[in-house]
Amino acid sequence: MRPTSTLSSLLISIFLFITSIAAHNVLLAPYGKQCFYETLNKNDELAISFQVGSRNPHNSEQYTVDFYITTPQGQTILKKKDMDHGDETVKAPSAGKYSYCFSNERTGRVDLDVSFNIHGVIYVDINDPKSDSLEYAVQRLSQLTEDVKAEQGYLVIRERTHRNTAESTNSRVKWWSVFQIGVVAVNSIFQIYYLRRFFEVQSVV
């Protein structure tokens, strides 16, 4: 095989791999769900990390979703309820098209945003002569690089969600403190006024 042909096939393989692990973002409708599909070979590992939040940057409420993965035969191999974030990994028991779903079917929450990354490990037979090839080594390096990028993106989303929660909590504490100061000031003025009236000497003509 010519070097140009080998290089072209290598670049195409890397491009296809990169697009397959790109980050995703989906808005869940009230009482709705969103499903996605991945074609896996037997013993492949599918890893999904996700974070649930709101598209409103000032909303500090912690939203949750139900998450589950289904085999090509329709069997649910993983089901999690009321998750605000997760990092789940499953090994494919057989080859076929697997589905993973984010569900908001039990609640009517609106503005519910799910950001998630898809990555995993492709099973390699140690007896396969391709496992020692340069093309496989480059694909493996590309996979590890994209895994790091995906993890960084996931951490950025979690940091943004937690920062919104912290800022909202700080704002509530600030206004509650202002309210308490106001109550103390009003109470002090009332006490001063009451004591002055109590000790005031009234002259009788």
Automatic annotation (TrEMBL):
Pfam families: EMP24_GP25L. The lineage of its organism: Eukaryota, Fungi, Dikarya, Ascomycota, Saccharomycotina. PROSITE patterns: GOLD. Its main location: membrane. Belongs to the EMP24/GP25L family. This is Endosomal P24B protein. Residues 33-120 form the GOLD domain. The chain crosses the membrane at residues 175-195. It comes from Candida maltosa (strain Xu316) (Yeast). It comes from the Eukaryota. Residues 1-23 form the signal peptide. Coiled coil: none annotated. SUPFAM superfamilies: Supernatant protein factor (SPF), C-terminal domain (SSF101576). GO terms for cellular component: endomembrane system; membrane. The keyword Nucleotide-binding does not apply. It is found in: Endomembrane system; Membrane. It is a single-pass membrane protein; Single-pass type I membrane protein. InterPro entries: Emp24-like (IPR015720), GOLD_dom (IPR009038), GOLD_dom_sf (IPR036598). Keywords: Membrane, Signal, Transmembrane, Transmembrane helix.
